[in-house]
Amino acid sequence: METVDRSRTPLLALITYEAMDRDYQVAAGKRAQSATGTDRRASRTAVVLVVACFALMVTVAAVQTSQNADVQSASRTSLIERIEVRRERVAGLQQQAAQLREDNAEAQVTLRRLGSAYNDVQARRTRIGAWTGFEPVTGDGVRVTVDNPAYAEENDVLRDSDLALLADALWAAGAEAIAINGQRLTATSGIRTSGDAVEVNKIGVAPPYTVSAIGNPGTLSSELLEAASGQQFLALVNRYGFSYEVDNVDGLELPAAPSSQRSLREATRLLSPRTDGGGTG
């Protein structure tokens, strides 16, 4: 701003100048105040905006944190529930396994009991099968071999009744099992003559006839001819000239009877007209 020399400046000009100078000062002051107010308002606006943005960010963060917390809480709750369910399932499976172990132990006891009973039944079946002829047997005994005489007439050969007498004599002497030419005798066996051949269990056998008997060899040999049927057979041997031989044998093996003999309806005993014979069947 210019400086006025008050001593040299005319009074009217000085008054005018000073008046204009004051106006300029007032106007400049107002402009300055106006500019300051605008800056202040801008500053305040900026502060408000910053605060608002910060508040918005804080709010968003809070909302996100809350949502995350809810999700985490829900996940934790769900995880706990799943753990509890799994624990209950594991406990149930453990109880089931314990029950199965108990059942298995009881089944093992039952199995052993049934196995023992089965073995007893099998042993009994074997004994009964051996007695009845439907199981193969092995043991000591005697072997009796008989044959027709040389150049025997048709009516002078061994017949079914003759072999039946020999078998009856062996039974009476204590035989436990008997077979004729490998055909096991049972309670339902049939010894018969079919034409010129002799059949045992409906199977033809040819001389010489081998009659094997399991039992005490000493008893069988000594008591064979003491029974009535044995004496009758010996009489036939002497009358018709049959060859006759008895041997003690260790470890005789007799097969089982044919399955067809298991039915009583299959058993048929037909004796020849000869009246001096006994029989078995």
Automatic annotation (TrEMBL):
A GO CC term assigned to this protein in UniProt: plasma membrane
Membrane-spanning ranges: 46-63
Keywords in alphabetical order: Coiled coil, Membrane, Transmembrane, Transmembrane helix
Source organism per UniProt: Nocardioides faecalis
Family stated for the protein in its record: Belongs to the UPF0749 family.
InterPro entries hit by this protein: DUF881
PANTHER family associated with the record: UPF0749 PROTEIN RV1823, UPF0749 PROTEIN RV1825
Coiled-coil stretches: 83-110
Protein name, per record: DUF881 domain-containing protein
Superkingdom of source: Bacteria
